[in-house]
Automatic annotation (TrEMBL):
Keyword entries, A-Z: Repeat
Species of provenance: Prunus dulcis (Almond)
One annotated GO biological process: RNA modification
A single GO molecular function term of this UniProt record: RNA binding
PANTHER family per UniProt: PENTACOTRIPEPTIDE-REPEAT REGION OF PRORP DOMAIN-CONTAINING PROTEIN (PTHR47926:SF479), PENTATRICOPEPTIDE REPEAT-CONTAINING PROTEIN (PTHR47926)
NCBIfam families: PPR (TIGR00756)
A Pfam short name: PPR
Name this protein carries in UniProt: Pentatricopeptide repeat superfamily protein
Repeat (PPR) residue spans along the chain: 82-112, 113-147, 212-246, 313-347, 414-448
């Protein structure tokens, strides 16, 4: 006799147990049609208004139904609704993405428990409303509801700064949470790893009574994210000495560490281990191995591994497409993309993003527009990664109005989206529009990063906005906590130099915490020549000769300046010093083109000569 039939044997068809067993069977079958049959029988015998059976039937409808109508009908039929009834309905609304209706029901609930709060918080997270989730988390504690382990695990997944993370950690201690438990311990390790607080992650790890493979994986990943690649590898080898065996997530993380260092030799050791234990049959591991070879400039090995796989899936195809694009083999990337479509492998946001990033550099705008059409067809236009890639693509090909339209239509914008739009605007000469977008970002309460401010300074530089540029540069660290880096210095030095404020530019360079790059000195040297400041030209050129020993630019510029002023001995001395130090222009062959080894210097010198001629009215003399 069937086991289910045995369970029903001896149960009367009008008993609660009978219908409870029927619902159990419905849950195991995952059948909506069977659910409706059971519901009909409950109505027939009058049990549809029973709280326990009504709740169970409601749960079935929310799990397997495709509309809210049937579930809400069951909810309305329950005469005495208890907290479980409300919570099931609340979870159901969140599962269907009906967050507004969930909020309305949450407000109407006569009583709320920790499950009610958790449902609303996780619902907001699923919908991308992270600020609302944090707000609910705070209100929950103000209302006197003690968070559960699940509540804290959700909150930890949302933390974006170490201060906030430590506050949540302290709240867990105050609420008497068992921090040595695997769930909370692993969540804390993962949170601190993402925040770059590796020391705190290790402290949690060492205080846990028991660790598992997830603990090790979180620790390794945290070390890697925080920039401690060697430490991440050390933890992997340390784990190998324990009873815990690495899984596919461990291996993929370690391979990614080797990718980003990059360290091909250690990567090969991990790859050999994968072959030995049979991990290459796992899609995650195979994808990571393809990335390893590609990022270590072994594209041929990545292709060989891909071709030797006797199966295809989207992850390995994505890795191979991005590998082709990374090595400028864009036609191969597009060809493989077409093959994935023929194999009915639906492209992901990463596939489309990789193609758009390569299309903006190597392929015509028409192809990018075709990819955009595919994005719309597949319903990815609201995806932040794809939308940002589209903005970047249209910005790079000069179609900035298309980029602005996509940005305006984005629902939830992250910092990457804002940065892409700001930098795209700046590169397309939309100076004041760039500053307006930056103001909009600040008004949204989003903290800018170094890329944001680099884009704003670039716009100020291109627009010649000295006051705005200086104000932004001088307030970077105080206002936004961002220490200026080389690209920020380059923009402000270029802005000041090009507008004739050479003393201010020199002062800022003198205040740099590290030795200025050759590009910064070149910017000042160019400005000195343009503005006819011979004394400063001489000083900067001599400084460059010391810091950039093999650059021909300062020697040639200084020799030219001496020659124009009739200082023949000084000119000969500079050329002799250039010869003695072995500085010369070396020509190389590349891609069927003859080009100078330090081509930038040659072109800069030509520009300098043109500017000098304009300054001295040489062009007028030539035409007369």
């Amino acid at each position: 006799m069937h086991s289910f039939s045995k369970q029903l044997l001896g149960l009367h068809k009008t008993s609660l147990s009978y219908y409870s067993h029927l619902i159990d069977h419905c849950l195991s079958l995952k059948s909506l049609n069977f659910s409706k049959v059971i519901h009909a029988q409950l109505i027939k015998v009058g049990f549809n208004s029973h709280t326990f059976l009504g709740n169970r039937c409601l749960d079935v409808y929310f799990r397997f139904g495709n509309t809210l109508y049937d579930a809400l009908k069951v909810f309305d039929e329950i005469t005495d609704k208890n907290i479980v009834s409300w919570n099931i309905c609340l979870k159901g609304f969140c599962r269907f993405g009906e967050l507004q209706r969930a909020h309305n029901m949450f407000a109407e609930m006569p009583v709320r428990d920790v499950v009610s709060w958790n449902s609303m918080i996780s619902g907001c997270v699923s919908g991308g409303f992270f600020d609302n989730a944090f707000c609910l988390f705070s209100k929950m504690q103000i209302a006197g509801m003690r968070p559960s382990e699940y509540t804290f695990s959700i909150a930890m997944s949302l933390v974006t700064c170490s201060c906030h993370g430590k506050q949540i950690h302290g709240g867990m201690i105050r609420n008497g949470m068992n921090l040595s438990s695997l769930i909370l311990g692993n969540s804390l390790i993962d949170m601190y790893g993402k925040l770059g607080c590796v020391d705190y992650a290790f402290c949690v790890f060492f205080t846990m009574e028991e660790v598992d493979i997830i603990s090790w994986n979180s620790l390794i990943s945290g070390c890697h994210r925080s920039g401690y690649a060697e430490l991440a590898l050390d933890q992997f080898f340390q784990m190998r000495s324990t009873k815990h065996s690495p899984d596919e997530f461990t291996i993929s993380s370690v391979i990614n560490v080797c990718c980003n260092v990059p360290n091909l030799e250690k990567g090969k050791q991990i790859f050999a281990f994968c072959l030995k234990v049979g991990f290459l049959s796992n899609s995650i591991v195979s994808s990571a191995a393809i990335d390893l070879f590609s990022k270590c400039n072994r594209l041929e090995d990545a292709i060989r591994l891909f071709e030797e796989l006797d199966w295809w899936d989207l992850a390995v195809c994505n890795s191979m497409i991005s590998s082709h694009a990374r090595h400028d083999c864009v036609e191969d990337a597009v060809r493989l993309f077409v093959l994935t479509l023929r194999e009915n492998l639906r492209p992901s946001e990463f596939t489309l993003s990789s193609l758009l990033n390569s299309a903006s550099i190597f392929l015509p705008a028409e192809l990018g527009s075709q990819i955009h059409s595919l994005v719309v067809k597949l319903g990815f236009e609201s995806d932040r990664i794809v939308a940002s890639s589209l903005i970047d693509f249209y910005s790079k090909v000069g179609l900035i109005n298309y980029a602005m339209k996509i940005f305006a239509n984005m629902g939830v914008k992250d910092l990457t989206s804002w940065n892409t739009m700001i930098i795209g605007m700046a590169h397309n000469g939309k100076v004041f529009e760039t500053l307006n977008i930056f103001e909009a970002l600040i008004s949204e309460g989003i903290a800018p990063d170094k890329l944001t401010l680099a884009g704003v300074l670039l716009a100020c530089n291109l627009g010649g906005l000295v006051d705005e540029g200086l104000t932004m540069f001088l307030s970077m660290e105080k206002e936004y906590g961002i220490v200026p880096q080389d690209k920020h210095y380059m923009s402000i030095v270029d802005l000041l130099s090009s507008t004739g404020k050479l003393k201010e530019a020199i002062y800022i360079v003198a205040e740099m915490p590290s030795e200025p790059s050759s590009m910064i000195w070149e910017l000042i040297l160019r400005a000195c020549v343009i503005h006819g400041d011979f004394k400063l030209t001489e000083t900067v050129a001599q400084r460059m000769m010391q810091s950039e020993a093999q650059s021909s630019l300062p020697y040639l510029v200084l020799a030219q300046a001496y020659e124009m002023r009739g200082r023949w001995e000084s000119m000969i001395r500079v050329k002799r010093a250039m010869k003695l130090k072995g500085v010369r222009n070396v020509y190389t062959f590349k891609a069927d083109q003859l080009q100078p080894h330090r081509g930038k210097d040659i072109y800069l010198i030509l520009r300098l000569l043109c500017w000098e001629m304009e300054a001295e009215d040489y062009t007028d003399n030539l035409t007369n």
